[in-house]
Design a protein that fits this description.
- The complex is a heterodimer.
- Chain A is about 85% helix and about 0% strand.
- Chain A is mostly helical.
- Chain A has one domain: MetI-like fold.
- Chain A starts with a helix and ends with a helix.
- Chain B is mainly alpha-helical.
- Chain B folds into 2 domains: about 35 residues; about 200 residues, MetI-like (MetI-like fold), CATH 1.10.3720.
- Classes of the chains: A mainly alpha, B mainly alpha.
- At the A-B interface, α1, α4, α5, α7 and α8 of A face α2, α5, α6, α9 and α10 of B.
Chain lengths: ~250, ~270
């Protein structure tokens, strides 16, 4: 317990020093680009606790939530199917690789042209980028099942649905989560990109608009909030992963 | 279900000359079928404004023949390369000491975790204020986004040193430089290679993102300009070019990794 506490305390030293340094270095700052941290924080309090949260934070989180959910469902479903049939998996792999390495932002102008700048466009772009890591990792995880499990399942004639939901997916779940973690990072980038380019709400829109109006404390407060949101999304995902994969850690000892 | 027993695989070989050839031709066939379906759907007007793949292909060839593609392509590759080198050097140089010292790692892990999750594009407005829409903005943002992949992989790699090997090196009093070159570097190399490959992909994604978002010159800007100008097939040609660039960069890194790490157990083929 004490070792855990001291570890947390150790981890906090550097951030506290950095923030304090920022605070004092910028306290008497007259630079236009780098306003005093004090004024950034008071702007932060005015704007984000919690007046503008429904206007700008909620749309961003909705887009990323729906986009990630859709990616997870499609990625796991298609990935499992492709993983279970090695021949089809190998056949489509060049196309999958192309789609995976096609930077999804390149499709942003196209998506705006096709579906406008609403929520649908942002979800579409997030799915187009975030589905591949999950899909390919699921495929890999399903394929690399231990052969002896496959043999046991076959000789005991496990029903197909039990086979998929009780054996294949749990066995692949560590890999699937690794895929989801990669997808989250991509999804956040795409969320901000879609808001910077084509949107009238959202965090990305807010910081770009503040910059255009030269409201620097507002811009900084939005950037800080985006950092916090990015961090919290990752923390939430790793908490879920910790819970869902508890059995896996236990089995590894 | 998932594996063919060897005897079955052997018996089926005479039909096609080899299983590898069979899969290879299936891959080609699938691509051809997809392109044909796209061509038919676009030609019959079912896809709205989406052009036919032959038109996109012709446009792409035209871009190369007329030479208009070279300037945006060169700028994109240059900003990708600059940001990649910057991110790799900083990541490796900072990662080594952080991985080697447990105290330094513990003190910095929270900061690293936090910074890693800041979306690089959140810094776009700041970069635009400071550098405008120049190549500096692109390089700055892309390397900020990619440095964490190299840094964290370097730290993991250095921390992964086998304790017995480390103790052996210590008890034989191997010098610092030899320890670094013969123990730390070989242990960390596969991790760093993975980090570099990830960073290369992130750099390209962010380079193109920044070019699209703030209209900095490059392929990204061309995609936006052609889309606004209504030359749809040209826009598709640039999108395909971006995809080809992504695949090429990844292929180069996989090949480099394989060539330079062929000695490492994770890259050696296991013989049955």
């Amino acid at each position: 317990m004490t070792s855990r506490l001291s570890q947390v305390a150790l981890g906090l030293i550097v951030p506290i020093i950095l923030v304090t340094a920022w605070w004092f270095a910028s306290a008497s700052s007259t630079s236009f680009y780098f306003p005093p941290l004090a004024s950034i924080l008071s702007t932060f309090r005015e704007l984000w606790l919690f007046d503008l949260v429904p206007v700008h934070v909620a749309p961003s989180l909705t887009a990323i939530g729906i986009g990630l959910m859709v990616s997870i469902v499609i990625g796991i479903a298609v990935g499992t199917l492709l993983g279970l049939s090695p021949f089809v998996g190998a056949m489509v792999s060049p196309v999958l690789q192309f789609l995976r390495y096609l930077p999804a932002v390149a499709l942003l102008p196209l998506a705006i042209q096709l579906v406008g700048i609403g929520l649908e466009m942002r979800v579409l772009i997030i799915v187009l980028g975030a589905v591949w890591p999950i899909l390919l990792n699921t495929m890999d995880g399903v394929r690399s099942m231990h052969p002896s499990i496959v043999d046991v399942a076959r000789s005991t004639r496990v029903a197909p649905l039990d086979w998929i939901f009780r054996l294949v997916l749990p066995a692949a779940s560590p890999q699937i989560f690794a895929g989801i973690r990669a997808s989250l990072a991509v999804a956040i980038v795409l969320m901000v990109a879609s808001e910077l380019l084509g949107s009238s709400s959202g965090m990305g829109y807010f910081i770009l608009e503040s910059q255009r109006q030269f409201s620097l404390p507002e811009m900084w407060s939005g950037m800080i909030l985006l950092g916090i949101i990015g961090y919290l999304l990752n923390v939430i995902l790793s908490l879920i992963e910790h819970r869902v994969l508890a059995w896996h850690r236990l089995s590894r000892g | 279900m998932a594996t063919l027993s060897p005897s079955v695989a052997l018996r089926s070989t005479p039909v096609f000359s080899s299983p590898r050839l069979r899969i290879g031709s299936a891959k080609v066939a699938f691509i051809v079928v997809l392109l044909a379906a796209w061509q038919l759907a676009a030609a019959s007007g079912n896809l709205g404004a989406v052009p036919e793949p032959t038109a996109v292909g012709a446009e792409l060839v035209g871009l190369f023949l007329s030479g208009t593609v070279w300037a945006p392509l060169a700028i994109t590759i240059a900003s990708w390369a600059l940001s990649f080198v910057l991110a790799s050097v900083i990541g490796i140089v900072v990662g080594f000491p952080l991985g080697a010292s447990r105290l330094a790692y513990r003190m910095s892990s929270f900061v690293l975790d936090f910074c890693r999750t800041i979306p690089a594009l959140a810094l776009v407005p700041l970069a635009v204020l400071m550098f405008g829409t120049s190549i500096q903005s692109t390089v700055l943002l892309a390397s900020f986004g990619a440095v964490w992949a190299v840094l964290l992989q370097t730290i993991y790699g250095v921390r992964d040193i086998d304790p017995i090997a480390r103790d052996t090196f210590r008890s034989y009093r191997v010098g610092r430089i030899d320890t670094a070159a013969r123990l730390v570097l070989p242990t960390a190399a596969p991790y760093i290679a993975t980090g570099l490959r990830l960073a290369a992909a992130i750099c390209l994604l962010l380079t193109l993102s920044v070019q699209i978002v703030i209209a900095a010159p490059g392929i990204g800007q061309e995609i936006v300009v052609t889309s606004l100008g209504g030359s749809v097939s040209k826009m598709y040609a640039y999108i395909v070019l971006a995809g080809i660039l992504g695949i090429a960069i990844n292929a180069v890194f996989v090949a480099l990794e394989r060539a330079s790490l062929s000695w490492h157990p994770s890259h050696r083929k296991v013989l049955p």
